[in-house]
Specification:
single chain; mainly alpha; two-stranded antiparallel sheet; 9 helices; transmembrane; membrane; transmembrane helix
Length: about 240
């Protein structure tokens, strides 16, 4: 019910200011505490993505002269899973068959947004935390999606009208998107390490990781001043992948 009079309490500019400060801080850290360039670029990507994610999910925060009750707020939640997606897809293709592609374009645009919005989140968590299990990362994206819908519901109650759409199918699409990217990254990593002679589970040399932990092996080879690893001297900086 967007026809009600409302005002923007918090717009995009505070979020933009905070993002700019963090962005400049990351550049300053790169200048005075240099890190790998690909890591630097990835951190900038995380900052930009965080701004886009938060701004599209929760901003602007509005207020009006009325308030929603919990009952009315819950009544306007789309609680039926999958069926609206199936109906929307069916009606879109029927309209496209009759020559009207605008309905299909609108449906695909909305569905693809919710399908892809958490894909970068899962990707960045995977890249920043290589030891975490993919399933745990997937659970964290599921929790984030559910919490985001709850926050949007609370913002609607605070605003006094249904500014944000709260829909269980958005959560389902978020879950599918994050599961897809994590599955792809899992098999890419597995094949990458196998093709280079590593054990893809332990991130160490395939023939040695079967009998001892990589950390124990590394400490032992450092004491021996060994050069057995691909003709390179083994140190604590040895790259295993």
């Amino acid at each position: 019910m967007l026809y009600r009079n409302y005002e923007i309490l918090i717009g995009f500019w505070p979020l933009l200011v905070i993002t700019s400060i963090v962005f400049l801080l990351e550049i300053w850290l790169q200048v005075y505490h240099r890190q790998k360039f690909n890591v630097f670029v990835r951190r900038l990507g995380i900052i930009a993505y965080t701004f886009i994610l938060l701004s599209t999910l929760f901003f602007p925060i509005t207020i009006s002269d009325s308030r929603l009750t919990l009952t009315s707020a819950f009544e306007h939640i789309s609680k039926i899973p999958l069926l609206p997606l199936i109906d929307g897809a069916f009606l879109s293709f029927v309209a496209a068959h009759k020559g009207d592609f605008s309905v299909l374009k609108t449906f695909l645009s909305a569905a693809s947004y919710h399908l892809l919005i958490l894909v970068p989140l899962a990707y960045f968590i995977r890249r920043e935390n290589k030891t975490a299990a993919s399933f745990n990362i997937w659970l964290s994206t599921v929790a984030f999606s559910i919490i985001a819908q709850i926050i949007r519901l609370l913002l609607n109650i605070f605003s006094g009208f249904f500014f944000f759409d709260v829909n269980i199918n958005h959560v389902i699409l978020n879950i599918i998107g994050s599961a897809f990217i994590l599955t792809v990254m899992h098999f890419v990593r597995k094949n990458y390490l196998k093709n280079r002679g590593y054990n893809w589970k332990n991130r160490g040399p395939h023939n040695l990781a079967q009998t001892m932990a990589v950390k124990k092996f590394l400490n032992k080879k450092i004491k021996e001043n060994s050069e057995n690893y691909r003709g390179q001297k083994i140190t604590r900086r040895t790259k295993w992948n």
